[in-house]
Design a protein that fits this description.
About 19% of the residues have low confidence. Strands 1-2 form a two-stranded parallel sheet. Helix content is 35%, strand content 6%. It is mostly helical and 171 residues long. It is extended and about 50 Å long. It has a domain of 99 residues: Rossmann fold, CATH 3.40.50.300. The longest helix is centred in the middle third of the chain and has 20 residues. The protein contains 5 helices and 2 strands, in the order E-H-H-H-E-H-H.
Length: 171
């Protein structure tokens, strides 16, 4: 399973500033982090290329809207549970489902361009593929726990009688 946690440029700036204020978190932010913020657009293009080139049917990327840490954590845990459950039940692994992201603040809505109505700070990450249509889940059947196979017994160890060492006498 592969997850990409995407945050907006504004959220990244907010987190950087918060880290600088808290003494025990300052080590997490470096000059290189600040310098790389200037390359935001290039990094976004590289992310899109990476996702396009490395997402496969058996190992798809799950794109996580991570401005809200709580939402991101829940989405990741749900995805892990769904995929593990599908594997254990022998069903095909479900594709990443686009979920509704948490509602935006009014401040963020104000950043929309008046002409096109598009967010000028929008992140250009490709949307995950549409989920396949699947029938309703049947009721879960509780199965008895599978017993572990019995361990093979080790062959009996042949007992050797030790010959007395030189200079020592047997008791």
């Amino acid at each position: 399973m592969k997850f990409w946690l995407q945050i907006s440029q504004e959220e990244q700036l907010k987190r950087f500033k918060e880290r600088e204020k808290i003494e025990f978190k300052r080590f997490k932010i470096t000059e290189e982090d600040w310098r790389n913020r200037e390359k935001w657009d290039a990094y976004q293009q590289a992310i899109c290329d990476m996702v396009d080139r490395t997402s496969t049917g058996t190992a798809p990327w799950t794109l996580v809207e991570a401005n809200d840490k709580g939402y991101a954590r829940v989405k990741i845990l749900r995805t892990i549970c769904e995929r593990l459950e599908a594997e254990l039940e022998g069903k095909p692994v479900p594709k990443s489902k686009p979920e509704k992201a948490p509602k935006e603040d009014k401040d963020k809505k104000d950043s929309k361009d008046k002409k096109g109505g598009k967010d000028k700070n929008a992140v250009k990450v490709p949307a995950p593929p549409a989920p396949p249509v699947t029938p309703a889940k049947p009721a879960k059947v509780s199965r008895p726990a599978a017993k572990a196979p019995a361990r093979p017994k080790a062959p009996p160890v042949a007992r050797r009688t030790a010959a007395p060492r030189k200079g020592k006498t047997a008791r």
